[in-house]
From TrEMBL:
This protein's name: Flagellar hook protein FlgE
Organism: Comamonas antarctica
Residue intervals of the Flagellar basal-body/hook protein C-terminal domain: 371-415
Superkingdom per UniProt: Bacteria
InterPro entries: Falgellar_hook_FlgE_sf, Flag_bb_rod_N, Flagellar_FlgE/F/G, Flg_bb/hook_C_dom, FlgE/F/G-like, FlgE_D2, LlgE_F_G-like_D1
Length: 416
């Protein structure tokens, strides 16, 4: 026996205590992943025993491996806090431009509206086309939130109605159409209205009237004036399903608009609308409106931000509009053990980890995001304290082997 075994054991136990201490120190660090010390015996290949076996000369540190198990997800109530539930890392750009990856989702906004980490790294994601609502997954960019900028008004161009016209109603000539017949009335007319918006966001009411015609037909008007012409006719089959008459185009003259500005710097012209009545039915039940909406809105102020479990960032406005602004990018690796930790809960890719595969939450094998929550450290504090006691005993035992070896040498030196 030599001092080599004891010294290697002391070094290994000391390194193990360092790793355990690092784990314990980060037991409350958001997104932290614990590490484990892996040992391997050391063999003196030049020294062979009588049985042919190589002589052991102690222990080596084979590796310090990170444990990328899922940490507990705890609610915080902060809408900018995000946790990855499953596979994936947030992609961030460090202040020096290095592309890094993290599981720590305690994000915040700077004064310019940029989404950043606590150490100032930019959070990366994809833009969403406001016209189509589709994510541009080919170009990654730093995420920037709208910061109080109002959205302009959008003029209404289409009105959609889902309603039922009573098949038992009588037509304008007083002919009963129901079976069994009902008492004739001078005319059966139903009406419904809603507010639409012009290009300046001014609201004006639009009313639609439906007058029973001959057979399974209904004439559509935008005025109760007896001389007003019909703007369209709806035709139904015997089962009450609309077969023709939709859509209908109608125009509201500028003079009919609420608070018209016909001579100002921004004159308001006629408001052209398309009425989508494809969802109108004619059943033998009371007149009822199920849905009546349109595609316009007034100007609106930003009231808040929300993030979906697929990473889509939604801006909420005072006019009821919710607009998809962007989507967070996630990354995964074929070998997460090959990632290199660079501090600040960040890792960078290496040749051992392989190149990152990018995507979005809930797509492919990527996990989902939990908004208003953070992933806790995956350190098992109880297990680490037990490991610490074991490592301490190992250190003491190896120190004892050195002491014993020293006593043996002293005995040899003192031989007479």
């Amino acid at each position: 026996m030599s001092f080599q075994q004891g010294l290697s054991g002391l070094n290994a136990a000391s390194k193990n205590l360092d790793v355990i201490g690092h784990n314990v120190a980060n037991s409350s660090t958001t997104g932290f992943k614990s590490s484990r010390t892996d040992f391997a015996e050391a063999i003196a290949s030049a020294i062979v025993t009588s049985t042919g076996a190589n002589s052991g000369i102690g222990v080596n540190i084979a590796a310090v491996s990170q444990q990328f198990t899922q940490g507990a997800i705890n609610s915080t109530g902060n809408s900018l806090d995000l946790a990855v539930n499953g596979d994936g890392f947030f992609r961030v750009s460090l202040p020096d431009g290095t592309q890094a990856y993290t599981r720590s989702g305690n994000f915040q906004l700077d004064k310019a509206g940029n989404m950043i980490t606590t150490d100032g790294a930019s959070v990366m994601g994809y833009a969403i086309d406001p016209a189509t609502g589709l994510t541009n997954s080919t170009t990654v960019q730093a995420l920037k939130f709208p910061t109080g900028q109002p959205i302009p008004a959008k003029q209404t161009t289409q009105v959609t109605a889902l309603l039922n016209l009573d098949a038992r109603a009588t037509n304008a000539a007083g002919d009963a159409t129901a079976t069994p017949p009902v008492a004739a009335t001078p005319r059966a007319t139903y009406g419904t209205s809603l507010e639409v918006y012009d290009s300046q966001g001014l609201a004006t009411p639009v009313t639609m009237y439906f007058e029973k015609g001959a057979g399974n037909t209904w004439n559509v008007y935008n005025s109760l004036d007896a001389n007003a012409p019909s703007i369209g006719q709806l035709v139904f089959d015997g089962s009450g399903t609309l077969v023709s008459g939709s859509p209908i185009n109608m125009t509201i003259a500028a003079a009919d608009l609420a608070n018209p500005n016909a001579t100002g710097a921004n004159p308001v012209g006629d408001l052209a609308l398309t009425l989508d009545l494809s969802g109108v039915t004619q059943f033998g039940s009371d007149f009822a409106v199920s849905k009546l909406n349109h595609n316009g809105y007034a100007a609106g102020e930003l009231t808040g931000i929300s993030i979906g479990n697929d990473g889509t960032i939604m801006a909420n406005y005072s006019n009821g509009v919710t607009r998809a602004e962007s989507q967070l990018a996630l990354a995964k690796f074929s070998n997460v053990q090959g990632l290199s930790a660079v501090g600040g809960n960040n890792w960078v890719a290496t040749s051992e980890s392989g190149p990152p595969v990018f995507g979005t939450a809930k797509s492919g094998s990527f996990g989902s995001l939990v908004s208003g929550a953070l992933e806790s450290s995956n350190v098992d504090l109880t297990a680490e304290l037990v490991n610490m006691m074991t490592a301490q005993r190992a250190y003491q035992a190896n120190a004892q082997t050195i002491k014993t070896q020293d006593q043996v040498f002293s005995t040899l030196v003192n031989l007479r």
